[in-house]
Design goal:
Layout (H helix, E strand, L loop, with lengths): L1 E8 L3 E16 L4 E16 L4 H17 L6 E3 L3 E8 L5 E9 L7 E6 L4 E5 L9 E8 L6 E11 L4 E12 L5 H4 L2 E4 L2 E3 L3 E8 L3 E10 L5 E9 L4 E4 L3 E2 L4 E9 L8 E11 L2 E14 L13 E3 L3 E8 L5 E9 L5 E7 L5 E2 L6 E2 L4 E8 L7 E11 L6 E11 L1
Parallel strand pairs: 5-11, 14-21, 23-30
Antiparallel strand pairs: 1-2, 2-3, 4-6, 6-9, 7-10, 8-9, 10-11, 12-13, 13-15, 15-19, 16-18, 16-20, 17-19, 20-21, 22-24, 24-28, 25-27, 25-29, 26-28, 29-30
């Protein structure tokens, strides 16, 4: 410890400054370092003397020096902080690179953690305190398996003060390996027939339009197999094009197509489920297709387009006694566009009553309050979660979903 007494002219007085300084005290533990910095303590004594410009400058410099003296200036510098693995093979196994960081600051640094942006990247590092001028290493290992294509992963280096002190980056290009038939077609339908998927999500289908998606198949057996798709849930809007017999080793596609006739509009959820039958036996695998029927946005211009807005995306009834009377909540559906907003479909499970029906029109700038009614006496005890799906003629976001929750108590 050292103590010095300084005397400088101040604002109409002489400023006596007593400076007491303690250097840092470091306690080392197995996983961290605690560094305590004691700022300089100053005691001022005032005397009546004239003020000069030099005195003002000196005082400002002293305060700047005192402020900086108490700050920790630890800095861990990695050069380079980025590494390109170049082109690597997916089947070639993990690749690693070691980054070296040097403490360019005046205080010890402890690397508390290295946080990755992906589980495919694993860091190895030491929590040993890095003294000023010393270095530490961070080894980064990347696993390219099942990750073909270009990649770039960032890792954040954090100190014992929980501050991010550096960012490391690894990048490269993974050349894909040749996949097995089982990997390309992971769903076993029976008798050696495999499929590459079971779900076709068509998103929006517009009135008067068509959309098609495909499911790939492969016959891995040494003989022909018979294929049949039987509707289990049918919308009447889906057609399936597929071979009734699949030759040994043959690969192809099952084409599913939705068609919405212009003269018979269909709004809201469209869902189909097809049972897969192979050689006369029903498979454990089935095909599911779903879509949302909506208006064609191309038929609307920005000058006359409606715009739907909901006041709430989640409506919470909160705790409700099972013996309590019906509870009411509401939200507001408004039209912030320039055209008339039309509610095309209202879908819900029926567990919560909804005071809105398809066909409701809202003028530009207008709104309507949608009433929700919960009858707790007909609900099961515990958490109740439901969803309300609204489809409008909003060309940008035709479908909106409102979550409804309640807790039914005894």
């Amino acid at each position: 410890m050292c103590s010095n007494q300084l005397s400088y002219s101040g604002f109409g007085t002489t400023l006596g400054v007593i400076v007491s300084e303690c250097k840092y005290i470091a306690k080392f533990h197995s996983r961290k370092i605690i560094v305590r910095n004691f700022r300089k303590k100053c005691t001022f004594a005032w005397q009546n003397r004239p003020m000069t410009m030099n005195s003002i400058t000196r005082i400002l410099l002293i305060f700047m020096a005192l402020g900086c003296a108490g700050e920790t200036c630890a800095q861990l510098v990695f050069a380079p902080a980025a590494w390109d693995f170049g082109t690597i093979e997916e089947s070639g196994g993990r690749v690693s690179h070691t980054f070296t960081g040097v403490n360019r600051g005046a205080e010890p640094v402890v690397v508390l953690d290295v946080v990755t942006s992906c589980g495919c990247t694993v860091p190895e590092f030491s929590r040993r305190p890095v003294l000023p001028g010393d270095s530490t290493r961070v080894t980064v290992t990347y696993d390219p398996m099942n990750r073909p294509g270009v990649f770039s992963k960032s890792l954040g280096v954090y100190s014992s003060e929980r501050k991010k002190i550096a960012t490391l980056t690894v990048s490269g290009t993974v050349v894909p390996r040749e996949k097995t038939v089982g990997e390309q077609y992971p769903f076993e339908a029976g008798s050696g027939l495999r499929l590459d998927g079971t779900l076709c999500a068509f998103t929006y289908i517009y009135q008067g339009g068509q959309k098609q998606m495909a499911v790939g198949y492969a016959n891995t057996s040494g003989r022909p197999v018979r294929l049949e798709l039987r509707p289990r849930i049918s919308s009447g809007l889906l057609t399936a094009d597929y071979p009734r017999s699949v030759a040994p080793g043959e690969r192809g596609e099952i084409n599913l197509r939705y068609t919405l006739p212009a003269g018979k509009p269909h709004y809201g959820t469209i869902r189909d489920a097809l049972e897969v039958w192979v050689d006369g036996r029903r498979s454990d695998v089935s095909l599911t297709a779903h879509a949302i029927g909506a208006d064609d946005p191309a038929a609307v211009t920005s000058k006359n387009a409606p715009q739907a807005k909901l006041s709430d995306m989640i409506v919470k009834f909160g705790p409700v006694k099972h013996s309590a009377p019906a509870v009411r909540k509401s939200f507001v559906l408004s039209n912030e566009g320039r055209g008339v907003l039309i509610v095309r479909a209202v879908e819900h499970s029926g567990r919560i009553g909804v005071g809105l029906t398809a066909g409701r029109k809202i003028a530009p700038g207008g709104s309507c309050r949608v009433e929700l009614v919960l009858d707790p006496s007909v609900q099961e005890y515990g958490l109740l979660t439901d969803h309300l799906l609204l489809v409008t003629n909003d060309p940008v976001r035709p479908m909106r979903r409102v979550r409804l929750t309640a807790i039914i108590e005894d």
